[in-house]
Amino acid sequence: MNLLIMGLPGAGKGTQAVKIVEKFGLVHISTGDMFRAAIANQTELGLLAKSYMDKGDLVPDEVTNGIVKERLAQEDIKEKGFLLDGYPRTLEQAEVLTAILKELGLKLDAVVNIEIAADKLVERLSGRIINRKTGETFHKVFNPPADYNEEDYYQREDDKPEAVKRRLDVNIAQGQPIIEYYRAEGLVHDIEGDQDIELVFEAIDKVLSNLK
């Protein structure tokens, strides 16, 4: 089974990816892991990616796509199947991924799309506070400190509601065309993410078990 998982920041994508991989025995392919492996193995594309990263530049699509292709061509993918996480990030990358899979004799079976309303995600992501003395992290709603008072805690700039909303807007604008691309292929399964972690996984498990 070959899967793609999608969801906005804070939707719980990482948590559910781990659960899917454990249950179905898939190879978890995240963009970060792929880059690190290609650089550590000193592949031609890995070294090329590193040269951009060392300069603080974005890695061009053709290099990223090449690293994805290298990873998907490895033997463990054919044996176990994969869960792709963090790629594609653009519609162009999605179209390239379709071509890569076709070339390798693979196909995508489903796109798991974890959905939560943006205002709920702002609440989740902008609630993080940090203790000035200890550096401990808490959440105003989900994990409040027993001794909360405003003087002893602060918020990082990128955790403030305005910054979180901007980040989500960018992600929505990037992700929507990809979702629609796969929806047209009949591959998207929308999962309600605003519920207990175990209930989210139950819904995913039901969808994926029916695919097998």
From TrEMBL:
PROSITE patterns: ADENYLATE_KINASE (PS00113). It comes from the Bacteria. It is an enzyme of class 2 (transferase). Pathway: Purine metabolism; AMP biosynthesis via salvage pathway; AMP from ADP: step 1/1. ATP binds at residues 10-15, 128, 137-138, 195. Catalyzes the reversible transfer of the terminal phosphate group between ATP and AMP. Plays an important role in cellular energy homeostasis and in adenine nucleotide metabolism. This is Adenylate kinase.
